[in-house]
Amino acid sequence: MTLRPISAQEHRDFITTRSSASFLQTPAWASVKAEWRAESIGWFRDGHVVGVGLVLYRQLPKVRRYLAYLPEGPVIDWTGDDLEAWLAPMVAHLERQGAFAVRMGPPVVTRRWSAAQIKAGVADESVRRLGDVPPLERSQDGARVIAQLHELGWQQQTAEGGFSAGQPQFNFQVPLVDGDGVPRSEDDVLKGMNQLWRRNIKKADKSGVEVSRGERADLKAFHDLYVHTAERDYFTPRPLSYFQTMYDALGAEDPDRIQLWLARHEGDLVAATIAIRVGTHAWYSYGASSTEKREVRGSNAVQWAMIRHAMAAGAHVYDLRGITETLDADDPHVGLIQFKVGTGGEAVEYAGEWDLPVNRVIYKAFQLYLARRG
What InterPro entries does UniProt report for this protein, alphabetically (predicted)? Predict the structure, then answer.
């Protein structure tokens, strides 16, 4: 097996042959992360592409050495017993490109928990973290990947550094197919939601909330509501230009890759979201809601519209993205988990992000740099 840089078109062509891949591993994502230098790489066997990766290079201050980052990637066969055959040529190439360390996020599930288990965990005062609850399922593939990475000298990252823009290890997902891969009906998915979610979806409909697909010109309205949400919920919003770049880049790759959704009540924008889909995997990426008119339940209405659209597009999973591991009822983050749990899906733990120091001296200095940044 060999590895070399590939064109964006070769990269795109391979991803279309897969059931799905993370949108963070599409060549379009390089345009969104313009502050990183980007490169598409491909693995070849007998002249055919068998794997791809989007590498983002971030330069260390004042030094021409880079952290090479593959968010939620690379897109390779993670199920085998010889990961070294895949990772060794990748590391060698990245070292030649000036990487002092490689960071990647294997898109491999390790554990799953049902909505009922999470609800019980929140109610149990002895439970503080998701890991305290015995999982519904442990993945053999996930365990095999983690064991091999440890053997190969990779280091699992537990703390998130601002430099890395790390991805969540725990996500909440709604399966849109059953265990045999047969698509679920809208009625079945709706019945899987808790009573509050079903009631709120019905209330939004009765209140006259109208949900529609937006266009690029509507990004300004989305962003105004998103900034309002950020002020209310105490997080730092991204600039409008970030969403315009994302919309243009992902939309150019596939017209249905990114969608803007708007929920209005009597002409007022009450909720707005951005959804992304690659193949059979659909993601809820960003959301915003008004403090006024919360009683019309625009957020529930827009989520239900996105789920129905994902189902119609043939998606196998609707991914509400990250949750924290806390199940402590007194933790302010638990409200977000409870909102997502209401959809009746499942919590999914991925293998997390892993580093391989290539130059240990510089990597140590990099870790100290992150620690000083807090």
Answer: Acyl_CoA_acyltransferase, FEMABX, PG_Glycine_Bridge_Synth
Q: What percent of the chain has pLDDT over 90?
A: 87
Which pLDDT score, from 0 to 100, does residue 326 have? 87
Q: At 167, list the tokens.
A: 């991805």
Q: What are phi and psi of 90, to 5 degrees?
A: -65, -50
Of 320, 290, 291, nearest to 303 by C-alpha is 320
**Contact in structure between 343 and 323 (CB atoms under 8 Å):** no
CA-CA distances (angstroms) from residue 2 to 41, 78, 97?
11, 17, 16
Do 176 and 310 contact (CB within 8 A), yes or no? yes
| Mean local confidence (pLDDT), 290-296 | 95
Using a 10 angstrom Cβ sphere, with 0-12 exposed, 13-18 middle and 19 or more buried, the burial of residue 312 is: exposed
**Do residues 58 and 67 make contact, with C-beta atoms less than 8 angstroms apart?**
yes
Whole-angstrom distance, CA of residue 243 vs CA of residue 145:
34
Tell me if 333 sits within 8 A of 128, measured CB to CB: no
- DSSP run (H or E) holding 123: helix 115-123
User: What rounded mean pLDDT belongs to the chain?
Assistant: 94
User: What is the enclosing helix (H) or strand (E) of 274?
Assistant: strand 268-278
Strands 99-104 and 317-322 come out as unpaired
The pLDDT of residue 162 is above 80:
no
Q: Is the dihedral of CA 150, 154, 155, 158 positive or negative?
A: negative
Q: List alpha helices for 152-259, DSSP H.
A: 186-192, 195-207, 219-233, 240-253
pTM (predicted TM-score): 0.94
Query: What 8-state DSSP symbol labels residue 213?
Result: E
State the Cα–Cα distance between residues 260 and 279, nearest whole angstrom.
18
First to last CA, the chain: 41
Question: Domains of the chain by range and CATH?
Answer: 1-105+353-374 (3.40.630.30), 177-315 (3.40.630.30)
Instruction: Tell me the two tokens of residue 250.
Output: 């992902």
